[in-house]
Amino acid sequence: DYQSKLSNILFQKDSNLAQTGQFAFFDCKQLKTIHIPNSVTTFGAGTFCNSGLVSITFEENSTLDYIQYHAFYNCQDLTYIKIPASVRYIEDYDRDGVFWNCSSLKVVEFEDNSKLEYFAKAFLYCNALETVNFGANSSITTISGAAFEKCASLKTIVIPEGVTTIDGWAFCEC
After folding, report:
1. Residue 96: CA atoms inside 13 Å, Cβ hemisphere, count?
2. What is the C-alpha to C-alpha distance for residues 68 and 57, in angstroms, rounded to an integer?
3. SS3 71
4. Among 60, 86, 92, 148, which is disulfide-ready with 120 (CB 3.0 to 4.6 Å)?
5. What is each CA distance from 142 to 64, 85, 161, in whole angstroms?
6. Residue 79 CB coordination number (10 Å)
7. What is the pTM of this model?
8. Tens of pLDDT along 21-80?
9. What is the rounded average pLDDT for all residues in the chain?
10. Residues 6 or more apart in contact with residue 69 via CB below 8 angstroms
């Protein structure tokens, strides 16, 4: 069996990396940490799918705008993520979301002034998810469909004042 040895990724200062391609770090089970340069605008589909990612951090003033489906699919060691304010769209695919089955993910935070517009099915089957905080001054108006479906451990979510709609199945089986 093939076993990936890649465990850490570092980008040089002033990196110009703009996006990651589909399944760029797929099945990199030894990949534990990565710090994303602020030049990255898009995570391609499945970027970190099935990886051993424990920690992902973002350089200050991140320009990440779009996270495509399955980007963190089945990252079972990831426990925490703070999503940059610049992210507008977290894509879903058929029945799965970006963080589908991140079974150790306990806390999701969005930076203050989040520009998030869409995140259907984003945290589907994140069974350990306990806390979600959208941060202050979030522009979100809708908790998208099935966004937190089957997050059986969800205890606390801070919903921004601007939310006017909670779509169907948003908190089903929580």
Report:
1. 15
2. 18
3. coil
4. 92
5. 20, 16, 11
6. 14
7. 0.95
8. 999 999 999 999 999 999 999 999 999 999 999 999 999 999 999 999 999 999 999 999
9. 95
10. 45, 46, 91, 92, 93, 96, 97, 98
